[in-house]
């Protein structure tokens, strides 16, 4: 048997009096007294844990993506040191070289963001079963994810691009 008692004040301060009244009326011992906040918290704990887990995995994936993009662009700049040195020796400005590297990196990153958004749009039905209080196709979430990934990609591409503008043309032409 379960009883639900609504109070105007703090239910924990009235708990002893309510338990005594229920014991007198029913003659049964009262056990497992909880507030409604505790009941709701227990009923949603699995979904909150899944959301926390998804957040941790999402953060780790974002971090790994940033490291991957940075590594790829740093490797590309290192492989193209001679080409960049020739461009700088022939009069290309640092801003032009930086723009070239950023454009090439962001083109790939934005293609990945687009493919990822398209795939996630179709996989949201599966993810909605794991998360509590999340709409399946929330435009704010889709926009926030795309913007966040693009900004992280821009930072990961910007650092090697900045390094590319600091290449000394004389050293780059001797590089092999």
Please give a structural write-up.
- The protein is mostly helical and 176 residues long.
- Helix content is 77%, strand content 0%.
- The chain has helices spanning 11-26, 36-43, 45-79, 81-89, 94-128, 139-165, 169-174.
- The chain is rod-shaped and about 95 Å long.
Overall spatial form: rod-shaped
What's the main sheet like? none
Q: N- to C-terminal separation?
A: 82 Å
Order of helices and strands: HHHHHHH
Number of strands: 0
> Would you identify the regions where 5 or more consecutive residues have pLDDT less than 50?
none
Rg, rounded, reads 29 Å
> What is the percent of helical residues?
over 70%
**Percent of sequence in beta strands:** under 5%
Average pLDDT over all residues = 85
Secondary-structure-derived class: mainly alpha
How many H/I helical runs? 7
Give me the secondary-structure topology.
Elements: H1 11-26, H2 36-43, H3 45-79, H4 81-89, H5 94-128, H6 139-165, H7 169-174
């Amino acid at each position: 048997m379960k009883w639900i008692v609504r109070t105007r004040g703090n239910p924990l301060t009235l708990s002893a009096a309510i338990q005594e009244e229920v014991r007198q009326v029913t003659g049964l011992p009262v056990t497992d007294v909880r507030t409604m906040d505790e009941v709701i918290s227990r009923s949603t704990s699995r979904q909150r844990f899944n959301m926390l887990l998804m957040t941790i995995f999402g953060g780790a994936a974002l971090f790994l993506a940033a490291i991957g993009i940075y590594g790829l662009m740093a490797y590309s700049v290192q492989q193209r040191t001679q080409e960049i040195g020739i461009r700088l020796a022939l009069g290309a400005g640092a801003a032009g070289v930086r723009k070239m590297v950023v454009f090439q990196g962001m083109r790939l990153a934005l293609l990945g963001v687009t493919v990822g958004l398209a795939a996630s749009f179709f996989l949201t039905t599966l993810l909605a079963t794991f998360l509590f209080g999340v709409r399946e196709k929330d435009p704010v979430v889709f926009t926030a994810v795309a913007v966040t990934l693009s900004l992280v990609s821009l930072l990961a591409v910007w650092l090697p691009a900045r390094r590319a503008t600091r290449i000394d043309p004389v050293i780059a032409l001797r590089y092999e």
